[in-house]
Amino acid sequence: MGIVKTGFRLFIITLTAAAALGAVNYITEPMIDENVREAREAAMEEVLTGIDDPGFSKEFTTGNRYGVVSYYIATKGSSPNPVGYVVYVDRQGDQGGITVCVGLDAGGVILGVKLVSHEETPGLGANAARPAFLSQFTGREGPFNVVKTRSANPRDIVAVTAATNTSRAVSGAVNDAWVFYHEYLSWNPGKGVGEP
User: Fold this and answer.
1) How many other CB atoms are found less than 10 A from the CB of residue 162?
2) Over residues 19-26, mean pLDDT
């Protein structure tokens, strides 16, 4: 009889805790989604350096075409012609997954790069999120190579010290976005994947 009472009490406690967690999730989920949306929009504007007040299309998903997860088309005013693109790429970093946001102008030149999320080691791979590393891509066209010392080749990107694997992952993500632009977006300006 004591085992049944204890089991029933544990069941009630578990049920109450689950209901409380469900209620908290129900209340906070819209706020979390809004924060994620605002962070994403801020990243998109940040990587489109030089384009004032761009408007963005809906998100187009790619089914991981060319390594790209999704992208947005940036326009200006009422013109339907793209002035740029924001491309999201997921890659495997040294310690886990990384998500890179890449801004390109309408001609395929990299305008900006931002690490949206990563699991890299603080003080090492996490330094790849710093402007000193990411600004190397700005104003250039790929494909990029990661090197350990500065060179005269405009497609060489100097790796973060002691974080070559992370540097290669970020560079690979930028290359994926650049290839996606040249092999798909430049031929289908203003259109989503699968649109006529």
Assistant:
1) 13
2) 76
